[in-house]
Amino acid sequence: MSRPSIPASVLRAAVRQARTTLVRKYSTPSGLGNLFVPLVILVVLFWVRDADFSDGLVTAGGYVFAGFLGFGVVAAAIMGVAGELQTEREDGTLLRAKAVPHGMTGHLLSKLLVTPVDALIPVVPAVVGAALLLPEGTMPTGVGRWALLFVVFLLTVAAMMPWGAVLGAVFRSMMGFAWAMIGIYVLAAVSGLFFPATLMPAWAQWLVQATPLYWIGRAFRAVLLPEASGAVEIGGSWNVGLTLVVLLAWAVVGLLVAPVLLRRMARRQSGSLVAAARERVMQRGY
Amino acid sequence: MAYGDNVVLDSIDIDVPRGQVVALLGPNGAGKTTTVEILEGFRRRSGGTVDVLGADPEHAPEAWRARVGVVLQSWRDHATWRVTDLLRVVGGYYASYGTAAVPRPWDTDELLDRVGLSEHAGKRIDRLSGGQRRRLDVAVGLVGRPELLFLDEPTTGLDPAGRRDVHELVADLVDLDTTIMLTTHDLAEAEKVADRLLILAGGSIVADGSPDQLRLQLSRSSEVRLRDLATGEVTVHTEPDPTAYLTEVLARRPGEVQVVEVRAASLEDVYLDIVRRAESGDGVGPLPTIDPLREVTR
C-alpha cells in the first residue's frame, strides 16, 4: 500500500480537533480529575522525603519522584491512548471519523497532539510541589537540565504512544482490555519505577529489563538524580547511551506495528459494532 | 453477501436515480444495515458489484467520501463538546473539497438553522434530547453538502415526538437535491418520508416501488363484502381474484345481492404477509407481479 500524502487542510482540521478536545476535556470536572493524582504523589513524597534506598546511595524522594514522572508517561501514552481507542470504538467516535474524508488520519493526528499535553498536565503541579518538598539537589538546577528533562519526557511519550495504540487495537473486549491494564499496573509496580530494581533477584532483573517501563524510569532518574546514584541501577551506572538506544528501539518497533493494527481496526469499524456495544451497555451497564 | 457458508444477502439489485428518497424496509435482521454499510464502504462484501456515485465504495478515494454523508446512530461520543464544536471540527475536513458552486463545509450557523438547532448551538452534546441529538447527527451528515445521504434507522430509540421531529426534518431536505437512502423497520415511517420503498426480507429485495404501486401490485387478495337483498345479511369473502368472483356471483344470483365494498389489502397487510413468509422460510413465494413493476420504475 502506498503511503498517502496528507493535505495541509487535513493538518489544519486535526489541529482544530486537538484544540477542541483539550479545551473541552480540561474545562469539565472529569478532566480536572487528572490533577488528583499529583496530589497523592506529593503526599507520598512528603512521607519519604528523608528516607533513602541502598544504604544512602539514592534518596527515596528523588527516586520515587522520577518514578512518578515515568509512570505519568506510561499512564497517558499507553493506558490513556489504549483506553480512548477502546471507548471511541464503541461510542461511535471512530466510525464518525471513518465517514469523513481523511477523518481517521486526522483523528489519529489530533491524538498525537493531545497525548503529550495529557501527559504533561498532571506533571506540572507535581514538579512544582516536589521542588518545594524535596531536599536540595534533587530537582534540576540549570536551564540545560530542565530542557533535558523535557526532551526525555517527549521522547518517552513518543516511544510509548504507538504501544498504547497497539493495545487499544488488539484488545477488543472490555474484559480483555481491563486485564491488560491490570498487567501494566503490576509491571509498573515491579519495574523499578518506585524502588531500585537491583533490590530484586537477578532473574527478576532480567525480566524487568525486557519491559520499556524500566528504561523509562531509568531515563528520568539519569536526568534527575546525581551521578553517584547510578550505582543502584542494573549494571551499576546510568549508561545514558544504552538507555536512549533501548527507548528508540521501542519507538521504532511501535511505529512499525501500530499503523498496521490501526488500519485493521479502522477497516473493521462498523455500525453494527457500535450498535452491539450500545446494546451491551444498556443491558449490563459496562 | 455471505459469512462463511451463510449467505445473508443475495440478489440485491438496486438502482437509485439522483434526488430520490428511498427507504430500505425490512424486519430486524433482514440485512438492511449490512446492505447500507456495503454501500457506505464500511463493510467488505463477499461478491457482486457496487457502484455508488461512480466508484466502488470499498476502494473509493477520500474525495468520494466528501460527496457521501453518513448519519450514524451515535449515542455518547463527544459528550462534553458543544454542538457547534462538532460541526466546526467535522466541517474542517471538507474545506478542501469546496467549489464555487458548492461551498464546503456548510456554514455552521446556517446549517444549525436548517436543522432547527440554532437555539441549542452552545449546548453540551450530552444535554440534548434524543430528537435534538438526532438532528445534530443529521447536521453532521450534511456538513459536507453530500450528493448522497445515508440514514441508518434514524428513529430507533426515539420517543414519538423525536420520531416526528426526524420525519419532518427528512421531508424538509427534499429541496436539497440530495439522494437519501434510509433504513427502517417501520412501514408507517417509510411511507411517510420516502418516494420509493424497497422491502428487504430473507436476504433479498422482495418488493420495489412507490407505496401506491406496492399496494396495488402486491395485494394478493381483496376483501369483498356482499349484502343479501332478501335477508339483509352481509357476508365477507377474501378472494385472490375479486373480479372473477364478482362476475361469477352476480351471474349466478342476478338481482339477489348488492356489492357493498371491494377493498384491496392495506400496505401493512401486504408487508406483514411478505415478512411472515420470508421468515418462515417458505421463501417469498410467487410474487409474479413484481417483475413488470420493476421495469416500470427503472
Instruction: Provide the helix percentage of chain B.
Output: 25-40%
How large is the radius of gyration of chain B?
A: 23 Å
CATH architecture of the largest domain in chain B: 3-Layer(aba) Sandwich
CATH top level assignment of the largest domain in chain B: Alpha Beta
Mean pLDDT, all residues of chain B: 84
Largest sheet of chain B: 6 strands, mixed
SS field, number of helical segments of chain B: 11
Q: How far apart, in Å, are the first and last alpha carbons of chain B?
A: 24 Å
Q: Given the helix and strand composition of chain A, which structural class is it?
A: mainly alpha
Descriptive notes:
- The complex is a heterodimer of chains A (286) and B (298).
- With 286 residues, chain A is mainly α.
- Chain A has one domain (8-284).
- Chain A has helices spanning 8-25, 29-32, 36-48, 60-91, 93-98, 103-133, 143-170, 174-190, 202-209, 212-224, 240-268, 271-284; strands at 52-53, 58-59.
- In chain A, strands 1-2 form a two-stranded antiparallel sheet.
- In chain B, the strands form three sheets. Chain B has a six-stranded mixed beta sheet, with helices on both faces.
- The longest helix of chain B is centred in the middle third of the chain and has 13 residues, at 130-142.
- Chain B is an alpha/beta fold.
- Chain B is elongated.
- Chain B has helices spanning 32-40, 62-65, 83-92, 108-114, 130-142, 160-172, 187-193, 211-218, 242-252, 267-279, 290-297; strands at 2-3, 6-7, 21-25, 68-71, 148-152, 179-184, 196-201, 204-209, 222-228, 234-239, 257-264.
- Chain B contains eleven helices and eleven strands.
- Mean pLDDT of chain B is 84; it is low at 285-298.
- In chain B, 35% of the residues lie in helices and 19% in strands.
- At the A-B interface, helix 1, helix 5 and helix 12 of A face helix 1, helix 2, strand 4 and helix 3 of B.
